[in-house]
Amino acid sequence: MDTAGTGDSRGKPPPKPLSTREDLIVATLGINKTLLRLTSGEDLGNLYARWLAATEAIANIKNVTWNTTSRPTQAEVTNLFISKTRWHNPWERVFKPIATKYPLMRAWLERIGGDDGDDGPKDAEVWGSVRSRYTMEDLRAWVDNDGEIKKEEKVKGKDKDKKKKKATSALSR
Question: Which end of the chain is more exposed for a tag (fewer CB within 10 A), N or C?
Fold first, then answer.
């Protein structure tokens, strides 16, 4: 983690600091600053917590009196957490179904993943296996496959050639 504010270990530049208006939006909506785009944290539990905070803030926009500034747009609020592009894909595309349709994965994400002894579902129970790290791509595949990870079947020898021929002939039709 970069503590000098010069970017991260992957060479990404540091996020742009909040503007005065953004600071006011954060304060007025009571948003936890540790979940904003200014902080790093790409593990799935952190990303889900950020998505939850963003959706809660969006829902609260209309419930707050905006005396000193105009009411912020949904885009202004989401940009506090993540870029517009990443908000729609993968965040909304992946996290929204999890929040409404997959209680086991939701519980796993809320405990920030991992098998550290906390109450809640374990990796194998949710994912069907245990890995050292799960990515957004893994989560997207899990949601796209209706809550399961599709395993590639191993094909050996002559069966491999048959499978290739079948795939090739299906493509040429």
Answer: C
